[in-house]
Amino acid sequence: MMSFIHKRIKQKIAFSIFGLISMIVVGILFVILGFIIFRGISVINWGFLTKMPEEGMTKGGIFPAIVGTLCLIAGSMIFAFPIGVLSAIYLNEYLKENWLKKFMRSMTNNLAGIPSIVFGLFGMALFVNKLKFGDSILAGSLTLGLLALPVIIRTTEEALKSVPDHLRIGSYALGATKLQTIRRVVLPIAAPNIITGLILSISRVSGETAPILFTVAAYFLPKLPHSMFDQAMALPYHLYVLTTSGTNMEASRPMAYGTAFVLIMIVLIANLLANVFRRYFGKKNKMN
Amino acid sequence: MNLTNTLEIQETFPDIADEMLKAQTKDVNLYYKDFHALKNINFAIKANTVTALIGPSGCGKSTFLRLFNRMNDLISGVKITGDVLLEGENIYKKGIVVDELRKSVGMVFQKPNPFPKSIYENVAYGLRVNGYDHKDSIDEIVERSLKQAALWDEVKDKLKKSAYELSGGQQQRLCIARALAIEPSLILMDEPASALDPLSTSKIEELIYDLKNKYTIVIVTHNMQQAGRVSDYTAFFYLGELIEYDKTKTMFINPQNIKTQNYITGRFG
User: Fold this and answer.
1) Domain locations in chain A?
2) Inter-chain contact B102–A172, Cβ cutoff 8 Å?
3) Minimal CA separation from A202 to chain B, in Å
4) How far apart are CA B105 and CA A217, in angstroms?
5) CATH 1.10.3720.10 for the A60-218+225-284 domain, yes or no
6) How close are the terminal C-alpha atoms of chain A, in Å?
7) Which ipTM was obtained for this model?
8) What is the model's pTM?
9) Which residues partner with B105 through β-bridges?
10) Is beta strand B186-190 parallel, antiparallel or unpaired with respect to B105-108?
């Protein structure tokens, strides 16, 4: 009886500690979010979202930076998503367990561990200088795309792995080829998790500053880009500029919080969209 | 009478020519890396019969079953020698397209494995991947296959519903319908009822019995009574060897080999 009570008390203490720690983590998250929202929301209005920056970036809006970031998200995903998904399909569905597969896996993981400033440097050397794209949305998108690739490959691979083998075998047994099996059975089931990977990488890409520093980001450019060879402003870099090197830093501080708020909103909206997609696909291919 | 070599097979079926045998194996050996999993198997399957493969776990009966639709090819490290004939043609010879072969050999697995699609799409799947896209004829084939699998009355009003809404037994009959839709010339069943309750099991058994008018069926089973109830011929495998193969009645009443006798009477297994 004693040891029974003893066990129960131990369990209670353990759970209390775990609960407290997770509360602290969530709490910190809320404090950060609350801080940004509290400071940022006062400058948010229609003009802030749709106007060019004015008067040394202390007035006006951040429209070109919003457009720039959306262009970079789209550009990097157009490049990285198909390549990432196709490589993951190759890795998981076609390649047999051998040294090549192990090598490719470990390279993908290494790629994910490279600091983003190194991607920036590489992007500048290859896309800006060597391929002569100049500081441009194209160069920035490709650089960000490289950064997103390992995330997409890894999440897609996990998504494919979670499709039970007996469904593949059932499909082969009906005379389906490997490609048909992937297209008709495997991908529909894996789609929700693949989309989660896409959204994760969008979150990552939209917030990165280092890779766009030398490849696309403009300090101040009060017009919209006309082609993918134009420079552009982007939210994270704009935030950096407003916080560290504005003409009147006191006056541009609220603009910085406003920018941070918009950036967070873009990420939150992306996550929300992902959930809607997941639900939709999940319902269509319910597994249980 | 014991049908473990080619000569005896011909003696046993003197009334039928070679091509009336649905399938045959000649001196088949299968190695899984260093493991000799099937040892010199000579076997014949008569058309429109049910043949049961029995034997303790690991005896090679499931591996033997998978020879006929080349499912062993999916396992790396498998090496096969000898001939496997389906309607007289060696399905391991060069130039055989495996997808095409699998279209004519249906398979039902131990665990029901319907796709996460609608009931209708599950049955239509084999047609679609094999290039049929005429809607009316697909409708017809889906209905016919579900009727043959004794599932039509239960699902005719919810063809668009997910296959996962069906019970385990219904799912297994759906998998049988799915296999029937492509009109295979041979149907392989790998312990099709072992994951099901007794009622669903008896439904599957009745179904197997009915299907043999039109199809040839090979079934792996752990259940002696089931082998006795549904099959015309029974083969006993042990440690990769075909120990005995005969009419089911003979096998159960008067087995020639002491190992068969022990296994059937439950002395080991």
Assistant:
1) 60-218+225-284
2) yes
3) 29
4) 61
5) yes
6) 41
7) 0.90
8) 0.84
9) B186
10) parallel
